[in-house]
Write a structure and sequence with these properties.
alpha/beta; about 280 residues; Rossmann fold
């Protein structure tokens, strides 16, 4: 038996107007976890700026959301470039208004043994996840100009144990987690809350071996016996930014169906990454 399925993405969780008149910026908002967050913010009344490098894709997504009665603004953004970050915030402010919520979701990843990670490959992952999160958070804070605000960062459960074949992302995500804690403490006096979502098994395009027709190879290895659903990610992000979470900051909310709790006496045999056909699936 697995955990029951969550309500559909279109079912309300928070009041439909809880974010009315407010702007949420979601980096990497054109697909996957970012799109789930964008939809959740929009269904709560926010205008959502979905940012990324593929403006054509973002425009299509914004159009689809608009057809559903949701307000979305596509924004070209490479989070690795501070100047582009500033320009993106400027465009959002001029078009829709000042940003109240920031979801740092943009990321890149690919499996590679540590000794084979080139400097360019290392930077391709770490500069988006860590540098981009900092640049966007810093610009967001500066532009609040005394207004309260909320940030949610997309983290991963391997920040604690590492992940063979993923040294670049594991290191970057661990840095993001520390940044989340640091900014939460530093900016609390300004009314800015900073939290993280530690996302567990979430099968999606881009994961080696992903088959959209299955639950994914690890689904039944976790206590919940099913993977995370997109709407669960989006709703968690919206809740952490909502007025109902005003006393929550510096928290890393784990969404992994209890996977991080597993400390079984009888464990499956460890397979070295050098002996795996799929680096991430030992």
């Amino acid at each position: 038996m697995s955990f029951a399925e969550p309500p559909a993405a279109t079912d309300p969780m928070l009041p439909a107007d809880i974010f009315a008149g407010q702007i949420a910026l979601v980096t990497g908002g054109g697909s996957g976890t970012g799109l789930a967050m964008a939809e959740a913010f929009a269904r709560c009344g926010a205008t959502v700026a979905i940012a990324g490098r593929d403006i054509d894709r973002l425009t299509q997504v914004a159009g689809r959301l608009g057809d559903e009665g949701l307000s979305a603004l596509p924004v070209a953004l490479n989070v690795r470039q501070p100047e582009m970050v500033r320009n993106a915030f400027e465009r959002i402010e001029q078009t829709a208004g000042p940003v109240s919520f920031l979801a740092n979701n943009a990321g890149a990843n690919f499996p590679l043994l540590a000794e084979r990670i080139s400097p360019n490959a290392w930077h391709a992952v770490t500069r988006i996840a860590l540098d981009g999160t900092f640049f966007c958070s810093q610009e967001f804070f500066r532009r609040l100009d005394g207004r309260p605000g909320a940030i949610v960062n997309n983290l991963a459960s391997y920040v604690w144990l590492g992940l063979p074949g993923d040294a670049h992302s594991a290191a970057a995500k661990a840095g993001q987690m520390n940044l989340t804690l640091t900014l939460a403490a530093e900016w609390a006096r300004h009314g800015v809350r900073v939290n993280g979502l530690v996302i567990g098994n979430y099968p999606h395009a881009g994961i080696p071996g992903f088959d959209p027709g299955t639950e994914g190879p690890r689904a039944k290895t976790i206590p919940a016996r099913r993977p995370l659903r997109a709407q669960e990610i989006g709703r968690a992000a919206a809740f952490l930014c909502s007025p109902f979470a005003r006393h929550i900051t510096g928290t890393n909310l784990v969404l992994d169906g209890g996977d991080w709790l597993r400390r079984d006496v009888l464990k499956p045999e460890f397979v070295s990454p050098y002996e795996r056909e799929n680096l991430w699936m030992g």
